[in-house]
Amino acid sequence: MGFGDYPKEYNPAVHGPYDPARYYGKPDTPFGQVKLNELGSWFGRRNKTPSAFMGACSRAWWRWQHKYVQPKRVGMAPFFQLLVGSMAFFYVINYGKIKHHRNYKYH
Fold it and tell me: Membrane spanning segments where (predicted)?
């Protein structure tokens, strides 16, 4: 699958219009329904290639877009989610500088 191509599992005659937020591969047990003794085999069935990871990130992005950003009446949720996400990101990348400013008790 090249950049910008449809997934190889997508068939327009079967699936209809393409939805970037949908997984067109073989359905499997959802993670929330996997039992502890089946966890190893469930992870073994996952596709662990970089293109599969990027596809999962793309689907997550489009699901977020369809749920919070693109509805007819958009609320404040996507703006606050981006704000909190950016605050957490910048805290993580600046943690090395911030940790030196802790309040220590010298006694």
Answer: 74-93
